[in-house]
What does this fold into?
Amino acid sequence: MCNLKSCSGRNLPLVLQVNEITEENSEYNPALTLKMLTKIDWRVFVRTAETLGHTLPEELTAEDQSNEGLMQRVYHLLFNLNVVSGGLSCQNCGRVYPIDKSIPNMLLEEIEEAQ
It folds into this structure.
C-alpha cells in the first residue's frame, strides 16, 4: 500500500516493476504451497505473475488446488523467483518505491512525509 498520507483511493495493491530477477530451484513443497494460498490475494498474485511472464487462472478452484502442475508453478513463483531490482508503483499517485538488492524501500522522503 502507498505510504503517502495524501494518497487515497486506488493505492492498494502496488504494481511490481522488474529490472532484474534471479531464479532458484528449491524442492516443491505441496503443503507449504496450499498454506500460502490462504494468505495471498489470488487476483493480485495473478496480475503479478503476468508481470513476470507467467499465466495463471483468474479464479482458483478446488480442482486447481489439486492440479499438481499448477501448484508447482505457484510454488515456483512464490519461492523461487527473487526480484533483485525494480520497484513497486502506486496505481493512484504514481509514487514508485524502489527495490534494490531484493529489498523494497517503503520509506518516504522528509518532504513526502509532510504531504
Q: What stands out?
A: The longest strand covers residues 15-23. The longest helix spans residues 68-80. Residues 23-97 form one domain.
